[in-house]
Design a protein that fits this description.
Chain lengths: ~450, ~450
């Protein structure tokens, strides 16, 4: 194995452990795909003695990932530590500077420092692979880099966070509240003790920032992602959505508009009878819309030991074969500055749920506000007092008030925000109206 | 453009025309991805003067694809003629023998001669790209070759023929018969005048043969594909399927079993609430099941000018970059002989619909036959006389007979075939029972 490509693996959590298992189990398969042997020679983690169910005694041990990154005896630095700054960033910088390929599953790191790291990789003519950073086992990065290279991409969107999708699926299927399902997900290990990163939409936003750069040839700009999480989604919304032929998903969307690029993460209505609506539980999906290829959707496990490690291996094979494209398709020096389309200029349909006092003129007041803002309504339904979902009475949640749900014709977010503000201060209205965007698919 | 990679395009139908449009529109995009300019220099088609909506006056014209294939002034031979033998096969052989890369969308050619052509390509160290041959714009070949290279594939399956999926979707949505929808599809151009190739399952079988080889490292063996088309699917089956929580799709499946490899194309029941069930109309999908990555589904347009040409361009970029893998992943000389698992040994659940005389003991006789064959039933429903679909009365189709639908527990095809034969000859039974396999997802 004198000519084996030598991997240094930093981080032996779920993904690192999975990687070592794949390389062990599929040695000959990987050798054949890579055109030569690939072996792990050195590892680094916090705790050397922890039982991971794999034998790491054959690998050189490093306490410091930065030392591992600079080790002259490795060819590829596999970063599976996590974290967007600090030692992780330093280690990746050092590895690239030392002329080593880097393969990482770290979306936060790349969302923050993607452009810089891509430039560094290109200066040194090494690969920077991050297939595992977006949607786990789904090969969307390679598809965008290579398969759709002959297309102008108009939009890329998907379900990019398994925790959120799991919670929304459970709420709808079992008629349970957000808090209830979240607690269960936490005790089952599907959600972190501090879940804000997932349910607040930040994790999905990291991925959107990477997809936007790949799609539009712009610098990675995480700070420009508009983010709303799923914390405010109520059962009443899931029920109303279903009645109106929709399902609610937390979507991450990157799209080109006349005024710039929209990067956004927010709950959105998708058609009930569509493949994306049936992507349930922790499963992820990404749809890429190209001008020639049309819409291609990729669906699969967005996280987990096997799927994520599978993508890491694919990247390793590519860097070994020398076939890695520029990290963000175009040379990093040619990435254009990101031009943000303001969210207020967003155009689309909206779902609005208002909790109204049961008094004459209450709805007329709301309707007038919408009309004054130039928003026209496609449909209006008063929710049935008895819930469509098991075990829930819509009146319980709203405290006896009428729930009126409106679907608007396409309009501007600016108008909607003004309307919502005005509706909220109307004396007939019980609480803050719910507003959910409808994603046109 | 002295160093441009020169394409010779044989065939200027839908895909060839689309290819020339993409190369014209996205010249700089393709140049950047390919690492240099790519240009069409010569073309070949049946009729030089036909208006294709593109200007071909700048390309050298060939009447004979074999001459084009051997032309010293081209680097890549793009075969978009179609046909599994004759001049197409000769042209591809000649192009490879002359050391030119070949990119093709021709599933029939590869299903018949894939192993031979892969060997020829490898002898000459040239690329043989056929992303466009399976599921049009869906990048499943690259995903299997590269993204899932670190996985043992257990099964690959999907909706591989848009015409069949369109017909089944329309039948169900509009409550119309097979013949009725087929006629409409033919006049709309979605189905050929002689539709047997599509609806008989042969087109899907070509794709299955290629997917099987990629998945299992075996020689391409089209003759070993078990094929059933959708000709015998009745509205009563679509209705019963929906009542039982299923939808009927024509699936192409390649899977490893204990006794060998199953390659099969047949109508199959899939769960009604699943993403694959919502893949409607002419859309295709392919699911790859890997031991580490899990199940990844790719959904998209399976045919058409833009999508197919997009995949052709992706292959061209790969051959230009020199990054094409072996056509069937392993070196062609190392592909194992195909070992067929007999269809009689197939294991799974079955849907059976029997048209029974309304007489005492009629169902008891059927039940006894099933029991005698060791087939146990998971559920039995007598179809409601009134159809669940609009405009159809189930009694019309069955001529007043009772329709009894059974879902079996997993069993062997051999037992089912014996049971069906025995049921068919029972005096209480009106006509040949319907048997549809349930695909376990």
């Amino acid at each position: 194995m004198g000519n084996a490509v030598r991997l240094g693996v930093a981080g032996l959590g779920t993904v690192g452990t999975g990687l070592i298992k794949i390389i062990e189990k599929h040695q000959s398969r990987i050798r054949s795909a890579a055109g030569g042997p690939v072996e792990v020679v050195a590892v680094c983690a916090r705790d050397r003695s922890r039982d991971r169910g794999i034998d790491i005694s054959g690998f050189r041990w490093f306490d410091d990932p930065i030392e591992l990154a600079q080790d002259p005896e490795i060819d590829v630095f596999v970063e599976l530590i996590g974290g967007e700054d600090g030692v992780t960033l330093d280690a990746v910088r050092q590895a690239l500077a030392a002329g080593k390929h880097v393969v990482t599953a770290n979306k936060a790191l790349l969302a923050r420092h993607g452009t810089e790291l891509a430039k560094l990789a290109e200066e040194k003519a090494v690969g920077l692979g991050f297939e595992a950073a977006v949607a786990g086992g789904i090969p969307v990065i390679k598809a965008m880099r290579e398969s759709f290279a002959g297309n102008e991409i108009k939009r890329v969107y998907g379900i990019l966070n398994g925790t959120c999708n799991y919670i929304l699926t459970k709420m709808e299927e079992e008629g349970r509240t957000f808090d209830d399902v979240l607690k269960e997900a936490q005790s089952a290990g599907y959600a972190e003790a501090d879940p804000s990163f997932d349910i607040g939409g930040i994790d999905a936003a990291h991925k959107v920032a990477l997809l936007a750069s790949l799609a539009f040839g712009t610098e990675v700009s995480f700070d420009d992602v508009y983010i709303e999480g799923i914390e405010n989604i109520e059962l009443a919304d899931l029920e109303s959505a279903a009645e109106l032929g929709f399902r609610i998903k937390l979507l991450g969307v990157a799209m080109k508009t006349d005024s710039g690029i929209e990067q956004r993460v927010h709950p959105a209505m998708v058609p009930l009878h569509s493949a994306i609506a049936e992507v349930g539980g922790v499963t992820n999906c990404v749809t890429v819309e190209g001008d020639f290829v049309g819409d291609v959707m990729l669906v699969g496990p967005g996280a987990g030991e096997g799927p994520t490690a599978s993508s890491v291996v694919a990247d390793i094979i590519d860097v070994v074969r020398g076939t890695v494209s520029a990290p963000f398709i175009r040379p990093a020096s040619q990435l254009k500055p990101y031009k943000r389309a303001l969210m207020r200029a967003h155009e689309g349909g909206y779902y609005v749920r208002v909790s109204l006092e049961d008094a004459p003129g209450a709805f007329a007041a709301v309707a007038k506000i919408m009309a004054d803002e130039g928003v026209s309504l496609e449909s209006i339904v008063q929710r049935r007092p008895q819930s469509a979902l098991p075990g829930i009475d819509a009146r319980d949640e709203a405290g006896g008030a009428r729930q009126v749900v409106m679907i608007t014709h396409p309009t501007y977010e600016k108008a909607m925000r003004s309307a919502i503000k005005a509706i909220e201060s109307d004396p007939h209205v019980d609480k803050t109206p719910q507003m959910i965007r409808i994603e046109k698919l």
